[in-house]
Amino acid sequence: MSGYTFHLIPHTHWDREWYLPHSIFLPRLVAGVDDLLDRLQHQSNSTFLLDGQTVLVEDYLRVRPEREAQLKDLVRAGRLQIGPWYVLADEFIPGGESLVRNLLIGQADAARLGARTDVLYSPDAFGHPAVWPQLAGEFGIRFGVAWRGLGGEPGQERDFYRWRGPDGREVLLYHLPPDGYEVGAGLPAESERLAGLWPPLRSGLVERAATHQVAVFVGADHHAAHPAIEEVRAQLARLEPASEFRVSRLYDFLSAAAPEASGVPVLSGELRWSYGYTWTLQGVHGTRARLKRRHSMSELSLTAIADPLAALALVRTGRDSRSLLSYAWRLLLQSQFHDSIGGCTSDPVAGQVESRLVDVSNLATEIARTSVDTLISNEPDRVRAEPAIGEPQLILWNPVPRQRSAVVVADLSWFLRDVLVGPPGARTPRTGSGRRDFHLIGGGRIVPVQPLGHRTGQERLDALRHYPDQDEVDWTRVAFTPPTVGGLGLASMSLGPGARPAEPGAWVEGRRLGNDLIEVSIDRGGSIGLTDHRTRQRYPDVLGFESSRDVGDTYTYAAPARDQLRRARGIRAFRVAAAGPLVAAVELAWSLAAGDDEQGVGAGVMELRLMLSVYAGSPALRCTLLLNNRAMNQRLRARVSTGVPGGPALAGGQFGAQERVASGPAGLRYPRETPVSTAPAQRYVVRAVKSRGLALLAPGFFEYELTPGGALLMTILRAVGQLSRSDLTTRPGHAGWPVATPLAQSLGPDRLQFAIAPVTQRQLQDGTAMPELWEDLFLPIQPIWLRQASPLTLPTLDIRLEGEGLVFSALKPAEDGRALVLRCYNATARPAAGTWYFPVAVTSARRARADEQPLHEIRLGDGGRSIPFHAAPHEIVTIVVALAETH
Predict the structure, then answer these.
(1) Shared-domain flag, residues 273 and 292
(2) Are residues 230 and 320 both part of a single domain?
(3) CATH number for the domain that contains residue 286
(4) How large is the average pLDDT for residues 631-638?
(5) Which residues contact 545 (CB under 8 A, 6 or more apart)?
(6) Are 199 and 314 within one domain?
(7) 393 strand-pairing partners
(8) Same domain for 806 and 837
(9) Which pLDDT score is estimated for 886?
(10) Secondary element (H or E) of residue 59
């Protein structure tokens, strides 16, 4: 192959925060973009790729708003390339909806500024999920660029591939060379130096070239624009007159290569293996696990609570919270940078990420609260002005599109006395009688409650036109089983005097607890056994905790030459926390020697308290772990023993699940980096054969390992003290700038929730059993306690999704117009017929891509109350729905 066209692609890769915080990188970004805009203004033939993420433009214009017009002119002219992402995120830790919102916000930013780079550009993510090509198709993108996760194996020698997603759609993927996006960063304009540097660089690029089009990326981390890119191009043209040299846009390079790339190899599945090519750095999935868990909870509160409630409030009442939602989403996405959420950052950056995630949770809570008030016509200001009309109400909201009735746990408050705020005066604090026995009344039924505990505390009631009302209260936690609540629907319950007995459903007897579905036993040594009454399968020693030393860094796990695995044995304490009839719970406690102590002179200590709970009617063992870590340089994991050796596990992922086999280290074949035996999971991982199997479930992302013996190991924490080390046996060389990270040792208290449930192979095959089990565990019916509610009017809501294999993903407000966006996906390899059902007539419904661009109108059924559709295997289905005006 001769007569190449070499495309010089000027760019920068800009980590918004990494070993230094955003506040230090921002002035450097501003200086770099100032210089870039000046250069582009005077170099009419030049162009620049601003790293595929619009957040850099957002940051720049916040400081330099006066340059917005100039920047827009360059974007419209194609000289400055921005997007399609809002941020270059880690692509395994965020959920599928986060990846969609990332592209939606990037698309909106780019449209406002002039144009989007139509290339799914992921130059530095630590691997890529199988759904990646599918996401590209959902946003009308035909091309992609990636680096880590691919290369070094037979058949992976060239630079172009067609990567096929689970639904069959493909993206033409350019695979960056082993040196990545900085391959041409050092090209000088001086002819003599260039003549020496170009031949080896050219040889490596041409050796991989599957077409006559060859990309030369000119840029690197936090680098300003090359000062003489046109001179470099001219010098190269003189050195090699038989070839053509261009300063190109990324899209132009890929468009030129596409006609020649029809016969390139086809890839499918996830990209997580590049150990013979470049660092993959999958060890980040266990780093700062506490921060990742906080991220999962913030993400869940925004995606599954605030978004749908705001959408319902928008179409039912006209209340528009989309600007607040957008602000919250931007904060969440800013925390999903591949380094930020990967945890391979300095401690100050990790602190900023945590602060943003707290803000996201607070925003989501407030958006949800005000949306519920609007939907049910609750008026806090009216109650403050007319206290006599206020009465207690317990509101229930079902956040999934199927009817449900299951055990709900709620916290109710009882007034004790006013807490007066302000200078002393003539005001006299009111007093009340506090907690009392009660039952609930709802749906024309008496609903008994099981008391779970009480405490005295404070509660503040807010109203827009009044000062807060601060009260001392009795808090009571109760469990109950309400009448069935409609899909995405609301219900109210009032209080009746006196306790009523609940029907038996969960029990504790000695060291055993259970219900009609499962039974759990704890022997005196602390070994936990589980029996599935439905299949008569017994799982001995089902759950344990173990610690090993970790002398790695935030990128990479590394065991010492002589490791010692320590397991928690011999419980220190056992107590019954709840005896039924709706919730049965026991608490166990251990002390575990682990790692190094805080002075580095001996072994540290891990204190563990585990609450095991069984709910009436639920097949899951719920686990709440409270730990106090006083050990450094160690890895703590929970071991779930399935008793099913060999074979693969099925791990939840974005818009589907991924089957993976156990993989052990193969360091001799891969001296550059030892392959990890761990893997990422979203929400669950399962190992099952026929009627025997166990699922490990968590609220969001977690790292796990499947052993050849069939055990599932979930990383609870990796305690390490350096951002990067150069002396690791598992990864020689620094992966980042060395910085001490004492906070990454994860010392102190922590709390996490997970669950274990027996499952069968047949349950996995239907596609919906695992997602629905996860919903019942971590997205249950939501109780909303209103101690002083105004007279309420609840809307009739029962929005249901039906169809074999269809999994609910999102209900959100449309980006434009007052409409609902409903999203689901087909979790199976079979075509599926589905229907959305509504309690009121739908005005219109149309199929759309995930970017909400319309595809076609849908003919409504059932008098306008149903929306039928078909889903191809593994297809993501987005439907935009307009409802009739209701106010």
Answers:
(1) no
(2) no
(3) 1.20.1270.50
(4) 97
(5) 567, 568, 590, 592, 608, 636, 637, 638, 639, 716
(6) no
(7) 786
(8) yes
(9) 54
(10) helix 55-63
Radius of gyration of the chain (CA): 29
Give the domain extent around 820. 800-883
Residues 693 and 602 in one domain: yes
* Cα–Cα distance, 576 to 39 (Å, whole number): 71
Q: Contact 151/279 with Cβ under 8 angstroms? A: no
Element (H, E) at 34: helix 22-42
Give the length of the chain.
887
Of 748, 778, 808, the position where a domain reaches its end is: 778
288 and 270 in a common domain:
no
Question: DSSP character for 546?
Answer: E
pLDDT at 1: 45
H/E stretch holding 422? none
- Residues 486, 615, single domain; the answer is no
pLDDT on residue 694: 98
Beta bridge partners of 592: 606
Give the number of other CB atoms < 10 A from CB of residue 56: 21
For tokens 């109650």, name the residue.
Answer: 383
Q: Token digits for 420?
A: 């007066």
Q: Burial of 484 by CB count in 10 Å (0-12 exposed, 13-18 middle, 19+ buried)?
A: middle
Structure tokens at 265: 């190899």
pLDDT of amino acid 885: 64
| 43 lies in the same domain as 99 | yes
* Boundary-marking domain end, from 736, 762, 792: 792
| Short-list 577, 661, 680, 669, CA closest to 623 | 577
CATH code for the domain of 132:
3.20.110.10
Where residue 426 falls among pLDDT bands split at 50, 70, 90? confident
Which CATH number characterizes residue 826's domain? 2.60.40.2220
Please state the domain count of the chain.
5
Non-local (6+) Cβ contacts of 275 within 8 A are 152, 666, 669, 670, 672, 673, 674, 675
The three-state DSSP-derived secondary structure of 687-743 is EEECCEEEEEEEEEEEEEEECCCCEEEEEEEEECCECCCCECCCCECCCCCCCECHH
